[in-house]
Amino acid sequence: MNYGQTFCDLRENKGYTLKEVSEGIVSVSFLSKFERGESEISIQHIHALLDRLRVTFEEFLYFHNNNQPSEFEAFFNQAHELYLKRDLKSLQKLYEEQMALWEKYKVKPYRCQAVLLKIYENIIRDKMIDDERDGLKELIDYLFNVEVWTLYELRLYSKTILVLDEKMIETLSKTAYKKSKQGLPKVRETVNNILLNTIVYLIGPVNQPKKLVNEQSIQYFFETVEGNCLETDLLLKTNIMQLKGMYEVKKGNRDDGLEMVNRAIEVFKDLQAPHLAKDAERYLSLMLKCR
């Protein structure tokens, strides 16, 4: 289905006539041709027409794709599913497909996607990741060289964050926040998840409770994610409370930390997020066992 047909469906479903939508933007005949797929349209005009319908461009694309994820989101979903299934054969096949696309078009994201698949394979095989041989350095260089991070770069980084060293994670997480445009809810949500995962990493693994932590960096990321939090982001606020409690436990302030974590767990339950509550309970239990 072409974009014009999608627009036509939205217009008719909203009960607008061609004249009502086109008034002051384009001619009726031009809009009719666009809807029939007989004419292209400028970005400026399509945004104006969609605004007339009170439909965002993101919603328009969502309807156009029949509520299916974009090509790159479908890739990330497929790769993650194969990783969870430990399906090395399918991961290898997908890797070869991405490398073939890279060799044919020399478009850097194809190479980065192949690197991600190689990382998944090495984790499953319990092999060390070689920055040069496995292409991790190329992926990092790509992220640093992109001036504006879209959802693609954010998803790519979030999938590789735990194989990077602490200093690189600090730097790239700050870059992700500074270079992304967070007007879109999905972008802001992904950035906030990156910030939370960075805090988890900096607090350190539960089996190293006495690991020295970089308090200045942890404080920076707490302040950043709190500043990026909307009043209605109840789950995000609760996640922050939980991690602050874990941080206090890590530092040896057991009673204060336990109070915060247990309060967060109860809020998760009240918000009907049982999986988050169980994850918080499991994380706390592991931390306490190692002290």
TrEMBL record:
Signal peptide: none annotated. It comes from the Bacteria. Residues 10-60 form the HTH cro/C1-type domain. CDD domains: HTH_XRE (cd00093). InterPro entries: Cro/C1-type_HTH (IPR001387), HTH-type_regulator_Rgg (IPR053163), Lambda_DNA-bd_dom_sf (IPR010982), TPR-like_helical_dom_sf (IPR011990), Transcription_activator_Rgg_C (IPR010057). This is Rgg/GadR/MutR family transcriptional activator. The lineage of its organism: Bacteria, Bacillati, Bacillota, Bacilli, Bacillales.
